[in-house]
Predict the structure.
Amino acid sequence: MTEPLRLGIAGLGTVGIGIVRIVQKHGALLETRAGRPIVISAVSARSRSKNRGVDLSGYAWEDDPVTLAQRPDVDVFIEVMGGHDGPAKHATEAAIKAGKDVVTANKALMAIHGQALAEMAEEAGLVIRFEAAVAGGIPVVKALTEGLAGNAITRVIGVMNGSCNYILTRMEDAGLSYDAVFDEANQLGYLEADPELDVGGIDAGHKLALLSAIAFATQVDFDAVELEGIGSITIEDIHQAADMGYKIKLLGVAQMTGRGLEQRMSPCLVPDTSPLGQLQGGTNMVVLEGDSVGQIVLRGPGAGEGPTASAVMGDVMDIARGARISTFGQPARTLRKARAARAAVAAPYYLRMLLLDKPGALAKVAHALGEAGISIDRMRQYDHHDITAPVLIVTHKTTRTALDAALADFKATGVVSGTPVAIRIEAV
Amino acid sequence: MTEPLRLGIAGLGTVGIGIVRIVQKHGALLETRAGRPIVISAVSARSRSKNRGVDLSGYAWEDDPVTLAQRPDVDVFIEVMGGHDGPAKHATEAAIKAGKDVVTANKALMAIHGQALAEMAEEAGLVIRFEAAVAGGIPVVKALTEGLAGNAITRVIGVMNGSCNYILTRMEDAGLSYDAVFDEANQLGYLEADPELDVGGIDAGHKLALLSAIAFATQVDFDAVELEGIGSITIEDIHQAADMGYKIKLLGVAQMTGRGLEQRMSPCLVPDTSPLGQLQGGTNMVVLEGDSVGQIVLRGPGAGEGPTASAVMGDVMDIARGARISTFGQPARTLRKARAARAAVAAPYYLRMLLLDKPGALAKVAHALGEAGISIDRMRQYDHHDITAPVLIVTHKTTRTALDAALADFKATGVVSGTPVAIRIEAV
């Protein structure tokens, strides 16, 4: 196979331009590696007149990505527009109907419509690849789908949103509040137009749902991801966690339990000496655990023009070389619908609360925990602020259900002011 | 393609048995992922009667791996015997001549004969894959060859020998001498039958040479790797390095320079806060740097039954799925012979020496450095031992050539006792 592989690129934002740059700069290198030239036939974006700093004059222009997807001179449709409905979805479907392979960087599209799109593509003998949708430049989809294909995967863990990790590490380094660092990050352009996609864990939840599907041979089910953002994390929690040898991370965890598939994206404490604990700033890290391989840790840039374009090109090169792996590692029609297991796996928890200065207050809280079957590993009470005193408790392993029962009981004690903070401590 | 993929396994040591275990345990999972059954047709090893703890009765037995390689019921020849000449080489060649794809875990075979074997296989339309030969269970060959295929690779760095990393971290943790920890590791069975393969950097050098070939599109050239083992590292060096914020690692570095391809496997200082600096015990880590992706770090078990078998099965699954990538990422006949550049890239160095207690001794050493064009970043002189005083110098960036000139001059000063220790400080 020595004919050129012809790309149609829909979307000329950061990622689309990154892809154009790689194809223009590395034509010879790509051709030698793939055994055939990689060329761009056509591009599409909202504004044709915008100056994007690259020469697009050699490529056909399409205003409509659907028309681009249907062009006879396009072999691979590259979807880097974003958005889980509207043009991205329509154009991807049009590409499949027109017999094109698809490479996408769109985590929302794949997390929500991935099962249907993969079935549609596979029935037509086509592939959809989405390496760039998960953890930017880290080839984690490939590692999981191909490199570890001989393993039963036991757990996937990861820090998959660089903006959240930036915020949490910056809070600690500068001793700043969440709100102050959030504003700073927003001004620096580190956050999505809708910041809740980042700090609410939605973006990272999309990525986790995609990795879960591959790891556990289940239909991607973003709605089953237990989502909790980082907005409630205070600088006090970060300091207390540090005192005890932990870091707070927005951590994705997926594992198959006896009760079903557990998928969580939530703040967790991890040991500060672990690779995840040591992860600073905007970098991503994914930990893959398999029954034969043990633990593999992958670390790298989770976003940005170069890294994301690199991941797209990895997928393009696979297609150019004739490697046609199923989207989720096995035929989409063989993926099971997973039963969602919420909070199935027990863990120790970090609790922080304000106790009213009343006789026996601490005893009442300890009693509520005991009634819920939760034993205490460590407890500290700090100096009084006015009429309340901060109390910090680390429990032994407990289920979230038992913990929620205890937290409800705390209210009934009448000695807890406000809502206690509860953060899971994850073994990594 | 739904016919079974039939394996012939030559070598039933740890890795071979690990492969048998995966195929027996995960038959259904492998079949679903590959779209076809993965079966073992035949096995071969030195002793047929040895009890290996797995049931081999369903497989044909061959005393001779060459005969195994030629069996008509074998599609993929799996070479996990070891040794770069003799049976491993003969059987691999026989397999290719008989039209079989090859998967090998044999780093020495591939580092020494990889170019010839890859050319032979590719002329016949066959593939040789060697993921298990580099960094055990970490899918680094795949990441470099496929995931980062859109990048010009700028540097490959890694800790690729778990035994050496175990020795160095154990020396530091326990405050023990190299000899003491070496004996301990040897008794625990952590070292090769010929320990020089580990501590001399040869095993890790093989792995580096293989990654270099992929990264820089050059013919694998193990002889061009500058090799230096860890035998001269003292507990004093480890302590001094730690004082200054560094760890000592047996570090492989490959990069293309204006003067040619530099490949080094030698002890280096790396910042203790870097991922490489934080790597403890027998784990491996490879850092891949590309012009688009930036830096990717891969960490995982570098040896052992499960991890190595996992890597072999990753290659087998690729073949089963019809992914047929060139051994070194592009056709072997297109790989260039690289010019070897020794010590082309300048770096700061750590120097430790014993100065005789003579007036002006330190000045003479400083003068020798100055004459060689080397400036001093930091210098410490410690309390006298008898008639000598330990002196520690960190230089600014210099070439190895300039440093060697200074070290030669040190002798002429008559104030340096014994041979100074010089360890490169690598920016990671």
About this structure: The CA atoms of residues 92 and 360 of chain A lie 63 Å apart.
